[in-house]
Amino acid sequence: MKRSALVLAVGLVLLLGWAAAAPTQTRELVVAAWGDPYEAGWRKALVPAFEKQNNARVVWVQGFSSQTLAKLRAQKDSPQIDVAMMDDGPHRQAAALGLVEKIDRGRLAHAKELYDVAFEPGDFGIGFAVAAYGLYYNTKAFADNKWAPPTSWLDLYRPELRGKVSVHNIANANGLYLLLALNKIAGGTDDNVDRGFAKLKELVPSVVTFDKFGETPTLIQQGSTVIGTWNLDRVVNLASTGVPVKFVGPKEGTWGHKEVVTIVKGRPNQDLAYKWVDMMLSAEEQANTAKYIGLGPVNRTTKLDPETAATVLYGPEAIAKLTIPNWEVVNAKRAEWTERWNKEIERR
Q: Does 3.40.190.10 match the CATH number of domain 27-130+256-315?
């Protein structure tokens, strides 16, 4: 063999050997979702497990659901996000605007393990968790005064609790759910909330504040309020600091929403996005989401330790009692209801 041919052959062997030994290039998955403590919670288990299993790097784009929706709208012609995680209300808007892909359940190994509540209309996204909203009450104040613990949304109206109630502004999910809960109790319909507003007007004299600035925990600790509306995870977190407060799912039904994960339309990383979605739906990661994030699992096979189970909406009975708003109606009426709230409930 001529020297030049020999050198070429040796060089080719070395090149092929280097190529075989070189690691596969790390891919990126861009995920838009809430910031801390949510991101920090998912980085304890989900993110490192996904990165290791798929030789990928997760790039996190922080934002509230409304901010994520705004990003998707702004990037519609040139999307920069692979996976978006949002509350179900804003997600329905994203679906209506054609910003997300239709999910192929056949590509999700864990889809068959989910409660029916997880599935979104048209399969544009899929619910990966549930959040619960109901009542809180100060257990010490109730015990000291020998008051019966609350069991109903209507306990907010009890005369002995007048001037000791806090509820939320309609801009907060708690305020919206209170309006819808009272409207349903009073016989109203999804798109006619006149009866709900009438019930709210009756409640106004009992209310210390319509919280829109995060005042609830301070009011509870000061003893200014002893009962009101709040979400389960916030009540549990406050109770863990030693404050005598407890969450109640009212007998008429606990209101709440789904957290939805969806694949953004027009991105080339859809195979990796499907792997992210499927991992989120696995029993293992559902348990981690409950433990580290404080959201209830939608996978029927998920097993939670007793401590975690007490802090989230968990199990078929709890899921069956969950009421989720008709978001198509709510999204269409929210601005109108907010204006009416400001005029009739919190006159400004």
A: yes
Instruction: For residue 300, give the nearest of 321, 279, 276, 317 by alpha carbon.
Output: 317
Residue 24: predicted pLDDT: 59
Burial 132-143 (b: 16+ CB within 10 A, else e): bbbbbbbeebbe
Separation CA 221–CA 219 (nearest Å): 6
Cis peptide before 205 (omega within 30 of 0): no
Give me the pLDDT at residue 234, please.
Answer: 86
185-210 exposure pattern, b = at least 16 Cβ within 10 A, e = fewer: beebeeeebebbbebbeebeebbbbb
Query: Which structure tokens are listed for 139?
Result: 């257990």
Gap between the Cα atoms of 81 and 61, Å rounded: 8
Same fold, 27-130+256-315 and 132-255+327-344: yes
- E-strand spans in the chain? 27-33, 56-62, 83-87, 126-138, 165-168, 207-211, 227-231, 245-248, 254-263, 322-323
Say which residue, 281 or 24, is predicted with more confidence: 281
Q: Say which residues have a Cβ less than 8 Å from residue 89's Cβ, sequence separation at least 6.
A: 65, 257, 325, 327, 330, 331
Report the first-to-last Cα separation within the chain, whole angstroms. 94
* Cβ-based neighbour number of residue 220 at 10 Å: 24
Q: Rounded to an integer, what distance in angstroms lies between the CA atom of residue 142 and that of residue 220?
A: 13
Q: Domain 132-255+327-344 - what CATH class?
A: alpha beta
Spans of all domains in the chain: 27-130+256-315, 132-255+327-344
Best CA proximity match to 275, nearest among 38, 32, 49, 35? 49
Q: What is the pLDDT of residues 85-133, one digit of tens each?
A: 999 999 999 999 999 999 999 999 999 999 999 999 999 999 999 999 9
* Residue 219, number of CB atoms within 10 A of its CB: 18
Q: What is the mean pLDDT of the chain?
A: 91
Handedness of CA 307, 89, 334, 190 (dihedral sign): negative
Rounded to whole angstroms, the Cα distance separating 146 from 191 reads 40
CA distances 344 to 57, 194, 303, Å, are 50, 11, 46
Query: Do the beta carbons of residue 68 and residue 86 sit within 8 Å?
Result: yes
Question: pTM of the full predicted structure?
Answer: 0.81
